[in-house]
Design brief:
There is one protein chain. This protein is mainly β and about 130 residues long. The protein has one helix and nine strands, in the order E-E-E-E-E-E-E-H-E-E. Strands 3, 4, 6, 8 and 9 form a five-stranded antiparallel beta sheet that branches. Strands 1-2-7-5 form a four-stranded antiparallel beta sheet, with no helix packed on it. A hairpin with a 5-residue loop joins strand 8 and strand 9. The longest helix has 12 residues. It is globular, with a radius of gyration of 15 Å.
Length: about 130
């Protein structure tokens, strides 16, 4: 009954996202998300991005709002979808901002074993056009 968490990225066409996926057989209890940028730690991705908050979906988790990810499911941490007519410069702006960030996921399994997952967002640089 152990969770097997993984931080997944997607950047194809006009869609970008960051998910925390549970590939295990037990539930994953997410207690907190921490975003690191320029040596500082934030609890909300909104504090790290210079974008209108309504232009993307984002998840904030606090001590009172823990999330449970069931086996085979995911938590959408960040996602955005651009209009078909948007130019590459707008997509690259988001990629550049994501590239310098990192995510730490603090969680537990149902047996109260601590789980910490970390991944930097440098992956998004591979699609930069300029």
């Amino acid at each position: 009954m152990k969770p097997l968490p993984q931080i997944n990225f997607f950047d194809r066409g006009k869609v970008m996202y960051v998910h925390v996926q549970n590939n295990g057989v037990g539930p994953l209890i997410i207690e907190g998300l921490k975003f690191k940028k320029d040596g500082r730690v934030y609890t909300d991705i909104e504090e790290c991005l210079d974008l209108p908050p309504r232009s993307y979906m984002h998840m904030r988790i606090t001590g009172s709002s823990k999330k449970v990810i069931l086996p085979g499911k995911f938590l959408e941490v960040f996602s955005t979808q651009f209009d078909v007519c948007e130019d590459d410069a707008k997509l690259d702006n988001v990629r550049r901002q994501l590239t310098v960030m990192a995510l730490t996921v603090d969680g537990r399994d149902i047996y109260d074993n601590k789980i910490v997952l970390e991944r930097d967002f440098a992956w998004f640089a591979r699609h930069l056009h300029s």
